[in-house]
Design goal:
- The chain is of the alpha+beta class.
- Helix content is 31%, strand content 18%.
- The protein contains 3 helices and 4 strands.
- The strands form 2 sheets. The protein has a two-stranded antiparallel ribbon with strand order 1-4. A two-stranded antiparallel ribbon has the order 2-3.
- The longest helix has 13 residues.
- The chain is globular and about 40 Å long.
- 16% of the residues are buried.
Length: 88
């Protein structure tokens, strides 16, 4: 099995209407450089919420100017694979 490490980062919210999902996806895309793999990673948004407990009270849209810690995350090969109906 192969493991990939998503490095930790701190980011400041500088756009309107930013959400945890969008923030996590952008960080994953910047690291993985693959839209399909980044979209299929499971558990990263939850890990981000655990690393930033105050964000759960912020609602769906993150406050402008907030600093969010994106945790280090390990993806084991096969975890980020999307399953399709035609795959058997």
């Amino acid at each position: 099995m192969t493991a990939r490490i998503i490095p930790a980062a701190q980011v400041r919210i500088v756009v309107e209407d930013a959400s945890i999902d969008l923030l996590c996806y952008q960080h994953l895309m910047g690291t993985l450089r693959d839209r399909q793999t980044a979209g299929a990673v499971k558990g990263y948004a939850e890990a981000t919420l655990e690393a930033n407990p105050a964000l759960s009270s912020a609602g769906m849209i993150l406050p402008f100017g907030s600093i969010v810690t994106l945790p280090e995350f390990v993806i084991v090969s096969g975890q980020a694979q999307a399953e399709r109906l035609w795959d058997e």
